[in-house]
Amino acid sequence: MSVRITKDGFRRIKWDNESQQHIEEEVQAGKSFISQLREATTIDPDVTLSDIFRAVESDTKLKEFLGPYSWCDMDAYHQEIKRPTSGKCDDLKCIEITSYFEARLGDEGQIVLGIQGVGHDSTVWGIDFTPINELANTLVRLNSSLDYYVEGESKDMGYHYCYSLLDILDTIYFEISFHGKPKDRDAVAESLKEMSRQVESGEVELTPLEDIREMLGRDKPN
Q1: What is the DSSP string of 108-150?
Q2: Tell me, what DSSP letter sits at residue 28?
Q3: Buried-most residue among 50, 54, 117, 172 (CB within 10 A)?
Q4: 209 within a domain of the structure (yes/no)
Q5: Structural domains in the chain (count)
Q6: Do the beta carbons of residue 130 and residue 89 sit within 8 Å?
């Protein structure tokens, strides 16, 4: 069994022994996908963030589970995505979900999932401060390549990662709610803008990194 995310919602895909091919299983009305959270999942090329939100919104049990699991106020963000968009994110080609494996000496290592905006010119953008309604019509893609790092050094191992439905949904909802509710996110963003303005205007004095290391008694980084 696997899951496919389409513009019309979640779909179950199963192997049919008789026809020897994968077929789409008919989804019963009101049937939740919460039992398929660990199943391998793909996203159709035309699926947007708004499509994924609609699929989650229609699955009450799944939505109730994701809220506390991803530390996200689901209702607040599901309301925000319905607001009009200004088009300021039209430069984004897609929202991309990524994965990498980080190995450290003496440690088993771990797989880390992330999400980023990718522009038409391949510029990478963070999206954690972006109002969700501005991303509603942006395509969502999976980057199956698994980057591999050993002690911070990148190695091309040719590995790939198979995302589950939970991987995809948790990565999205955790990232967009990283700073709290939409109003909390906006407050943090304004605070950072003000800090940046103060630095650029010279209102605040910055301490060079070398001076900080000297104060800590470390002339060189570890």
Answers
A1: --EEEEEEEEEETT--EE--TTS-GGGGTT-BEEEEEEEEEEE
A2: P
A3: 172
A4: no
A5: 1
A6: yes
Q: How far is CA 200 from CA 117, 126, 207, in A?
A: 26, 22, 14
In the block, residue with structure tokens 């709610």 = 177
Q: Which domain holds residue 110?
A: 2-178
Q: How far apart are CA 94 and CA 135, in angstroms?
A: 9
Provide the 10 A C-beta neighbour count for residue 3.
21
Tokens of 102: 């980080």
CA distances from 187 to 71, 181, 190, 193 (A): 18, 10, 5, 10
With respect to residue 24, please indicate whether it lies within any of the assigned structural domains. yes
Average pLDDT over residues 29-51: 94
Contact 56, 64 (CB under 8 A): no
- DSSP-derived letter for residue 36 is G
The answer to whether the Cα torsion of 186, 188, 190, 192 is positive or negative is negative
The dihedrals phi and psi of 69, each to the nearest 5 degrees, come to: -65, -45
Helix (H) or strand (E) holding 47: none
pLDDT digits (tens, 9 = 90+) for 180-212: 999 999 999 999 999 989 988 888 888 888 888
Question: Binning pLDDT at 50, 70 and 90, where does residue 3 land?
Answer: very high
Mean pLDDT, range 103-112, rounded to an integer: 79
Residue 46 domain-assigned (yes or no): yes
DSSP 164: B
Query: Does the residue 56 lie in any domain?
Result: yes
